[in-house]
Design brief:
By secondary structure, the protein is of the alpha+beta class. Helices cover 22% and strands 22% of the residues. Keywords: Coiled coil, Lipid transport, Lipid-binding, Transport.
Length: 538
C-alpha cells in the first residue's frame, strides 16, 4: 500500500524525485497539492524518515536547486533539522573531526551522495592579541584612509579581502529561491534577505583581512550550493576588488566591484564598502542593484571590540521599478537599536507593499504593512510609558574612553502573522578559536591535493603569508607579508620606469549596465583555465 502521503512526498522531495522546473515526475503518484509550500513537506517529514534518507538517497540524486525554500548547506555542520532555517541540514554531514593536518594539502573522500566534504576547523587556533598595542600604530592615523597604512599581521585574520567578499555566497540558496518565485514581490523579499545575509558573517569578526595584491585572484566552485565565483584585485591605489558569480543551473549572475574605505576615528574604525552590487535573475529578465551598509568596529584602542552596521540600503528592481529600502540602525542610546534592520518594499508608485524587520546578526521577517503599522502603534504607546524612567537615567560621561558593549536581545520580537525570510546559520562550536569564522568561511582557504594544478597562480590560497598565519606560524607570515609587499612595490617601480600600465586579466573598467555608475565587468574566460599570461605576484 502507498505510504502516508506526507512521508512519501517528503521522501520524494528530498531524494530529488519530485518534479521541478517543469520536469516530469519520476517516482511518486501522489499529489503535492496537500502542501501549501515546499517547506511544509520538510517540516512534516518524520525524524525516522529523515534518518533513513541519509542511507537511501541515491548518490546520483541532488536536491533540485529551484526548490524555493530549500538548499543543501554542507557548511552548516550542526547536523540538526531546523524548521526555522527552512531547509534540511541533517542530510549532508560535515566531518567535525580534525582531518589530516587540516588546512594543509590533503585529500578528503567524497560523501556518500557524491558531494565533497569541506574542512570544519583551521589547522591552528587564533593567537591572542593582548600583547599588541593598537594605539602605537593608530595614534598617527586619525582621520586617514587605513588602506594606505601598513598594519602588523597581528591585527589580521587568515583570509584575503577577496575571500571575505566570497562570503556573500554563504546563503546563496536565497538567490535560487528568488529565481523560482512567480511574483516580483516574492522575489524582492528573497533578494532583500540575501542582501542582509551577505553581511551577517561580519558579526564579531574583528580581524582585518589581508589586502589583496594587485592581480590577485580567488575562485570558488560549490556544486552543492550551485554556484561558481571568481574575483580579481583590479587596482591597488585605490584598492578595488571585482567579482563575478554565476549559477551552475544558469539561473543567476551576481557581480560587482568594491572600493573599501577604512577610516580611524579615535576609538573606532569605520569601513565603508563603496561600489555597486548587481544580481541578475535570468529566468525573469530582472536585475537588482544595491550597495552595502557601513561597518564600524568599536573600542580598537581599549575595551571589548564590538561591531555594528548602519546606513540605508536601497535595492532596485530595474525591470518593474519596485524598490526595497532597508535601514540598518546604529546602536543608539542604551543599545536598543543594536543590529536592527527595518524597511519596506514599495512599487514604482511608492506604494508600500511589504514591511521587513529583524537583525542582520540573526534573522529577517516580513508582513503586511497594515499589520505592521498596527503593531508599531501599540509599541509606541508602551514606549511612552517608559519614557519617564529613561529620562531619569544618567548620561555617559564625556571622559569615558570605552564605548560600552550594548546588551542586545538574543531574539527578535516576532509580530503575529510574520513570514520568516532568512535565518543565520549556526556557527561551529569552536568559532571563537577560529577568528569567529562561520562554517562556510572556514572552508574558503582550504587547499587540497591537486588544486595547485588547476588554480590560477594568482589565487589567494597560494599566498604564503596567509597560509603561514592560518598554520599558526606568525613569524613566517610576517616575513612573507613584508616580502610580498616589497615585491609589489618593486613591480610598480619597474612599470613606472618602462612607462607601462597595469593590465587586468579577467575584468575591465566600464559602466554598470543598469545604473550607469563606474564598475568593473567580467570579460569571461577564467574557467577555460588558460593562465599562461598571469603575473608572478607571489
Amino acid at each position: 500500500s502507498c505510504p502516508p502521503r506526507k512521508d512519501l512526498e517528503s521522501v520524494a522531495l528530498v531524494a530529488g524525485w519530485w518534479p521541478h522546473a517543469g520536469s516530469p515526475r519520476e517516482r511518486s503518484s501522489c499529489s503535492a497539492s496537500t502542501f501549501g509550500s515546499w517547506e511544509e513537506a520538510f517540516i512534516t517529514l518524520d525524524v525516522s524518515v529523515r534518518s533513513t534518507l541519509e542511507l537511501q538517497v541515491p548518490a546520483c540524486r541532488k536536491l533540485p536547486l529551484c526548490l524555493s525554500r530549500t538548499g543543501f548547506d554542507s557548511d552548516n555542520s550542526s547536523g540538526e533539522f531546523s524548521e526555522a532555517n527552512q531547509r534540511v541540514t541533517g542530510v549532508i554531514h560535515v566531518d567535525t573531526s580534525k582531518s589530516n593536518g587540516i588546512g594543509k594539502v590533503g585529500e578528503r573522500p567524497p560523501q556518500e551522495n557524491g558531494i565533497q566534504k569541506h574542512r570544519t576547523s583551521l589547522p591552528a587556533p587564533m593567537f591572542t592579541r593582548s600583547d599588541f598595542s593598537v594605539w602605537s600604530i593608530l595614534k598617527k592615523c586619525i582621520g586617514l584612509e587605513l588602506s594606505k597604512i601598513t598594519m602588523p599581521i597581528a591585527f589580521n585574520e587568515p583570509l584575503s579581502f577577496l575571500q571575505r567578499i566570497t562570503e556573500y555566497m554563504e546563503h546563496v540558496y536565497l538567490i535560487h529561491k528568488a529565481s523560482c518565485q512567480p511574483q516580483p514581490l516574492e522575489r524582492m523579499q528573497s533578494v532583500a534577505a540575501f542582501a542582509v545575509s551577505a553581511v551577517a558573517s561580519q558579526w564579531e569578526r574583528t580581524g582585518k583581512p589581508f589586502n589583496p595584491l594587485l592581480g590577485e585572484t580567488y575562485e570558488l566552485t560549490r556544486e552543492d550550493l550551485g554556484f561558481r565565483f571568481i574575483s580579481e584585485q583590479v587596482s591597488h591605489h585605490p584598492p578595488i576588488s571585482a567579482f563575478y558569480s554565476e549559477g551552475l543551473h544558469q539561473d543567476f549572475l551576481f557581480h560587482g566591484s568594491i572600493y573599501p574605505k577604512l577610516k580611524f576615528w579615535g576609538k573606532s574604525v569605520e569601513a565603508e564598502p563603496r561600489g555597486t552590487i548587481t544580481l541578475e535573475l535570468l529566468k525573469h529578465n530582472e536585475a537588482y542593484t544595491w550597495t552595502n551598509p557601513t561597518c564600524c568596529v568599536h573600542n580598537v584602542i581599549i575595551g571589548k571590540l564590538w561591531i555594528e552596521q548602519y546606513g540605508t540600503v536601497e535595492i532596485v528592481n530595474h525591470r518593474t521599478g519596485d524598490k526595497c529600502v532597508l535601514h540598518f540602525k546604529p546602536c543608539g542610546l542604551f543599545g536598543k537599536e543594536l543590529h536592527k534592520v527595518e524597511g519596506y518594499i514599495q512599487d514604482k508608485n511608492k506604494k508600500k507593499l511589504f514591511m521587513i524587520y529583524g537583525k542582520w546578526t540573526e534573522c529577517l521577517w516580513g508582513l503586511d504593512p497594515a499589520a505592521y503599522e498596527s503593531f508599531k502603534k501599540q509599541e509606541r504607546r508602551t514606549d511612552s510609558l517608559r519614557k519617564t524612567k529613561l529620562d531619569d537615567c544618567p548620561e555617559k560621561a564625556d571622559g569615558d574612553v570605552v564605548d560600552a558593549v550594548p546588551e542586545a536581545q538574543e531574539t527578535v520580537q516576532v509580530i503575529p502573522g510574520s513570514k520568516l525570510l532568512w535565518r543565520v546559520n549556526t556557527r561551529p562550536p569552536n568559532s571563537a578559536q577560529m577568528y569567529n569564522f562561520t562554517s562556510f568561511t572556514v572552508s574558503l582557504n582550504e587547499l587540497e591535493t591537486g588544486m595547485e594544478k588547476i588554480l590560477a597562480p594568482t589565487d589567494c590560497r597560494l599566498r604564503p603569508d596567509i597560509r603561514g598565519m592560518e598554520n599558526g606560524n606568525m613569524d613566517l607570515a610576517s616575513q612573507e607579508k613584508e616580502r610580498l609587499e616589497e615585491k609589489q612595490r618593486e613591480a610598480r617601480r619597474e612599470r613606472a620606469r618602462e612607462e607601462a600600465e597595469w593590465q587586468t586579466r579577467w575584468f575591465h573598467r566600464g559602466s554598470n549596465p543598469y545604473t550607469g555608475t563606474p564598475d568593473w565587468l567580467y570579460v569571461g574566460g577564467y574557467f577555460e583555465r588558460d593562465f599562461s599570461g598571469c603575473p608572478d605576484i607571489y
